[in-house]
Amino acid sequence: MIIYFKVANFKSIKEAVTLNFNAASISEHTESNVIYNNKSSLLKSIVLYGHNASGKSKLLDALVYFKWFINNSATEKQSNEPIDVEPFEFNESTANKPSFFEMSFTLGKLTYRYGFEADKNVVHKEWLLESKAAKEYPVFLRINQKVEIDYKRFENAEDLEKRTRKNALFLSVASQWNVSKAQKIDEWIERIFTVHGMEDDEYRKLTIELLNDKKYSTLINNFIKKADLGINNIDVVDNPIKGEDIIKRVPDELKDFFKKGFKERSEKAVFAIHNKYNDKNEIVGTVPLLLNKSESEGTKKYFNIVGLLITALLENRVVVIDEFDARLHTLLTKAILKLFNSSIIKSTAQLLVASHDTALLDREILRRDQIYFIEKNIYGASSAVSLVEYKPRKDSPYDKNYLEGKYGAIPFIEDLEKLIVNGKS
Question: Which of 63, 123, 127, 152 is deepest in the core (most CB within 10 A)?
Answer without folding.
Answer: 123
